[in-house]
Amino acid sequence: MLEKNTYIFSSFGKAISKLSQMEILMDNREIRDHHLIRQFENNADFKREYSEMCGVEVLICYLDSLVDTAASVELKKLMRELNVSPDSWKPLDAKINVGIDQLENAILTGHLVILHATGSLVLKPKMRQLERSVTSPESETSIQGSSDAFTESVLSNIGILRKHLRSSRLHIQEMDMGEISRRKIAVCYLPGTPSESIAKRILALLSARKNREINSVQDLAKALGQRYWSPVPLFFTSELPEDTSTLLLKGRVVLLLDQLPFALVTPTIISDLWTVDSDKNMSQSIVVTLCTLRIIGILISLLVPGLYVALVSVNPELFRIEMALSVAMSREGVPYPAIIEMILMLIVIEMIVSASIRLPKTVGPTITMVGGIILGQAAVQAQIVSNLLLIVLSATVISNYTFVGTQNALMIRLFKYCNVLLGSIFGVLGILAGLVGTLFYFASITSFQVPFLGFGMRAEGTDE
User: Fold this and answer.
1) How far apart are CA 42 and CA 38, in angstroms?
2) What keywords would UniProt list here (predicted)?
3) How far apart are the C-alpha atoms of 223 and 214, rounded to whole Å?
């Protein structure tokens, strides 16, 4: 038997080098032939070819959109030339009695299914290159860190993550979610850290809802039984493997979702708003300065628009007389109250930001220039808004992008509107009440029993 295995491996040497490593599955149920063809015969890219292998007539089935046809032809030619019976393939790490779903999944994942009179074989040939290569991050920027980014392939992302965290302690468990899409999810964690209990809970929840379709991050949050209406994100998304590996070392759990070029890190804590692990490649004084600037940016974005409305409309007596006169002169001729003025301009700015993101990169800067410069200047000249308001809005928009994470920026931008409304009604006391209410709301948020206002990974509290 050892000599026969050696012969088979030597015969497939050239094929393995050209077609990558081959995975072989075996099955002896005759019903698969008819069921498999009936399942895929209405698909235009489903190909069936009758051939002869080792003197046995076989039917080769595959999806032309996933399989490299040229390499498959070479593989089929090699199989015809080999004087080896199908049973002799069993010693090559064969798996016997595979279920029907697994045989269908083999077709859907780019395998060659070879059906013959006594059973079937499943080979993994060279697949079409449908995945983009590892490139630089597009939505995040690393100043002094690694320049690679995650892709849409779970396997590629696992490889990138292992490249940055070369440890045998890193545990990665995969499962397919959904009856239709069968989307792959990988759960990554380090045993011996607080993430182990969270990871086991996530795996148990996903296993209990294995048939649920996962098409978005919100679907994943629903499957995990977590909050999905809350503006506070359940997952911290990162495109940078360097930051993701550091968060793993800090006791977080990382979820890699197929066709999503981001890592989903949970649980989230408030320090995620201003902490970037790649900053630690610089001196500690610079790190502290950058974190301080981000915290100041959060406060400006959250409070300044509401303070403008409160001080102009409700509590102008808090200004010094010179400042009050300057504000009154800047608003001379403006027909709207401060709250209407602020809300209108905030909505216009949100539309400009959204348009600049959605439009092609060649057109986006033009929209920003037209909206930010021409529209703002025209609004001031038409006395629709005041000069001071444009200064406040400019500082607010800039501060929106000083802290970390797109979802965190959206969260702060949403709470900003609450403070504007409270400031227009109750003045400075309304702003203070809004800030206290925001902190109380943050204190009520937990992710897998980890409080959002916690700065560590000690599990406590209850899920929302």
Assistant:
1) 8
2) Membrane, Transmembrane, Transmembrane helix
3) 8
